[in-house]
């Protein structure tokens, strides 16, 4: 595969994101309200999606490009003691459930990332969040998988190639940070 071919596929993915603008804009408004009310965003996923969850939580808490007060956010993928103890004592398919039960509350937002939309522990985490009255959103790839039917909203990057889906997720995440940084509420 040539470098040019990869760039062309990347460009096609970026252009496909324009269809998601109404959904992503609505999510930005929901997140803004969430953090203005002193609540937080819980991010979680596996593998590359776990890295994206951590990346976005860091951008929310530290900053994106503007010096501002921190936005409440937690990546449920960062505490190795919790991840390994829960997986050992219970089941990896419920590794996010327990953290959501402990850390989540009504008014928070849970965002589960899964390129296929079929990751069992992400599906279970979304279900647990909904049971606690937490609004949920899934970031997935083409079709949305099972998460399309479980989450309150599903932002499905309309491509099937895993790498392009992940690139779409982080681009959407960065735009969320950028638009939140552009609000007057959190400027320091």
From TrEMBL:
Q: What are the GO MF terms of this UniProt record?
A: carbohydrate derivative binding
What InterPro entries does this protein's entry cite?
GmhA/DiaA, SIS_dom, SIS_dom_sf, SIS_GmhA/DiaA_subfam
The record's listing under PROSITE patterns reads: SIS
- SUPFAM superfamilies from the xrefs? SIS domain
Biological process GO annotation list? Answer: carbohydrate derivative metabolic process
Q: Which residues form the SIS domain?
A: 27-186
Q: What is this protein called?
A: SIS domain-containing protein
Organism, by scientific name, is marine sediment metagenome
């Amino acid at each position: 595969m040539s470098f040019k071919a990869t760039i062309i596929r990347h460009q096609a993915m970026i252009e496909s994101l324009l269809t998601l603008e109404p959904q992503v804009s609505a999510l930005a408004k929901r997140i803004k309200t969430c953090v203005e009310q002193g609540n937080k965003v819980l991010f979680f996923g596996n593998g590359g999606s776990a890295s994206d969850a951590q990346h976005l939580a860091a951008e929310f808490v530290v900053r994106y490009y503007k010096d501002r007060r921190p936005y409440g956010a937690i990546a449920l993928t960062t505490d190795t003691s919790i991840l390994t103890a829960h997986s050992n004592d219970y089941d990896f398919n419920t590794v996010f459930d327990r953290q959501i039960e402990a850390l989540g509350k009504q008014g928070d937002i849970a965002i589960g990332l899964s390129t296929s939309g079929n990751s069992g522990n992400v599906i279970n985490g979304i279900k647990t969040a909904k049971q606690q009255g937490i609004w949920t959103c899934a970031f997935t790839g083409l079709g949305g998988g099972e998460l399309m039917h479980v989450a309150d909203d599903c932002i499905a990057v309309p491509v099937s190639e895993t790498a392009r889906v992940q690139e779409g997720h982080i681009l959407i995440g960065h735009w969320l940070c950028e638009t939140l940084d552009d609000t007057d509420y959190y400027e320091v």
